[in-house]
Design goal:
The chain is an alpha+beta fold and 417 residues long. It is built from twelve helices and 14 strands. The strands form four sheets. A six-stranded antiparallel beta sheet has the order 3-2-14-13-12-9, with helices on both faces. Strands 1-5-6-4 form a four-stranded antiparallel beta sheet.
């Protein structure tokens, strides 16, 4: 039952489109030269949409997503080393951070330092084996999976035109989009906004059983590719299709074989739009907490695991560098500096202040970067301290006082001996 609940919550992320960006028209732009989707596909889409709308109206919750596929992780799994007697960080600091996680409706809290987990706590019915919905932690997974495709010779680099793998866009207004534009949210595709009707492209681009075809043939371009940062789930969703075409493997299989297994991570499940269809790479994958932690450790270690290079040389530096269109983000990674009290994952210039995440003070490590998803699911990565801090969510954090994105890492950094 719990697994169904967290899976359902992921749908809220996409469909309520909590990232309220600039107002814009989001009506479908169907390509009249293409055959229409089948009546069965449209019926499935409307069934999903109506079930969601009714559940939100009556209970505030949503029904579970109806199609999942396994993502196979390490078959010879060994847990990361634990050392709960470490004195590298004061127990008072760890206790304060843990208490903050607990009062903010967390599912898991883990601190990894210099090769060992030195603090670990699961809340409610959650255990180390529970599958936790990634929300937008799916996006750094997809960015890393692009990296493994480059490392293994299936993709040339992130600067290729996406028409190399999306020939449908040749000779269209989308032909100038490069792969890095998807990864850095600067493709020019329509940004997220409030979407409440069944004919809204933002809903069709997630709930439809042929959602990647919706993105390919219906989803509009609103800005010149590479010219502007605008958060759009479509950017993350299309990565699965690109990787499947490039590697000739299903997305979940590629993530498992090229990423999870080499770093010894457990697998889980991924949303798929229909049986045998395409996975949702923008959201959502379901993995145990330690699997997300291992991905962060891989980033901290410059893409190397057990002396083997998993991500291409220079890839972590590239994805951790400021986007030309947003100094607060890289590719699937958010940057800790420069400091600003409120910022979020949408366009900083157009997002209302009350929808940005609160930062009470600057991060105390200049090299801090983070994965950051809906419900303040965060993984802080601090290479200079060989430190990773993970917090996943059961639900939304409390609102009074509001979530402070700097509290966990700064509390722990102040407690380092």
């Amino acid at each position: 039952m719990y697994k169904l609940m967290i899976t359902s919550a992921a749908v809220v992320l996409i469909l309520l489109n909590l990232v309220l960006v600039q107002a814009c028209s989001t009506t479908p732009v169907n390509d009249p030269t293409l055959p229409p989707f089948s009546a069965a596909d449209e019926a499935k889409y409307l069934q999903r949409f109506e079930a969601l709308r009714e559940a939100i109206r009556t209970t505030g919750n949503v029904p579970p997503y109806d199609n999942l596929e396994p993502v196979i992780g390490a078959t010879d799994y060994e847990p990361l080393p634990r050392n709960f007697n470490s004195t590298a960080i004061s127990q008072d600091a760890l206790n304060d951070a843990l208490a903050y996680a607990e009062v903010n409706n967390s599912a898991s809290f883990i601190v990894w330092h210099k090769g060992e987990i030195i603090a670990e706590k699961y809340f409610g019915d959650i255990t180390a084996d529970s599958l936790l919905t990634s929300y937008s932690l799916a996006k750094p997974i997809s960015v890393a999976s692009v990296g493994t495709a480059i490392q293994n010779g299936y993709v040339e680099n992130v600067d290729i035109p996406v028409t190399n793998h999306l020939p449908e866009w040749k000779d269209t207004d989308k032909s100038k989009i490069q792969l890095n534009h998807f990864l850095s949210m600067s493709s020019g595709l329509l940004p997220q906004a409030l979407a409440t009707t069944a004919d809204d492209i933002l809903n069709r681009a997630y709930l439809h059983p042929r959602h990647t075809e919706v993105i390919l043939h219906e989803y509009p371009l609103t800005d010149e590719p590479g010219s502007r940062y605008e958060y759009s789930n479509a950017n993350g969703e299309i990565i699965a299709l690109i990787l499947e075409r490039a590697t000739k493997q299903r997305y979940g299989d590629w993530v498992g074989d090229s990423l999870l297994k080499p770093i010894g991570a457990k697998g889980g499940e991924v949303f798929v739009n229909r049986p045998g269809g395409t996975a949702h790479s923008g959201c959502c994958m379901l993995l145990p907490a330690e699997s997300y932690l291992r991905l962060a450790i891989l980033v901290l270690q410059d893409g190397i695991w057990n002396n083997k290079r998993i991500l291409p040389e220079g890839y972590v530096e590239r994805i951790s560098s400021p986007s030309p269109n947003n100094k607060y983000t890289g590719m699937g990674i958010y940057l800790g500096h420069p400091y600003v009290e409120r910022r979020g994952y949408a366009n900083h210039e157009t997002t209302p202040e009350n929808l940005k995440v609160f930062h009470s003070e600057p991060y105390l490590a200049d090299d801090l970067v983070l994965f950051d998803g809906n419900r303040n699911q965060v993984v802080y990565i601090i290479p200079s301290k060989e430190l990773v801090i993970l917090r996943t969510a059961l639900g939304r954090a409390r609102t009074e006082p509001e979530w402070d994105n700097t509290y966990l890492p700064n509390t722990i950094l102040r407690g380092m001996n």
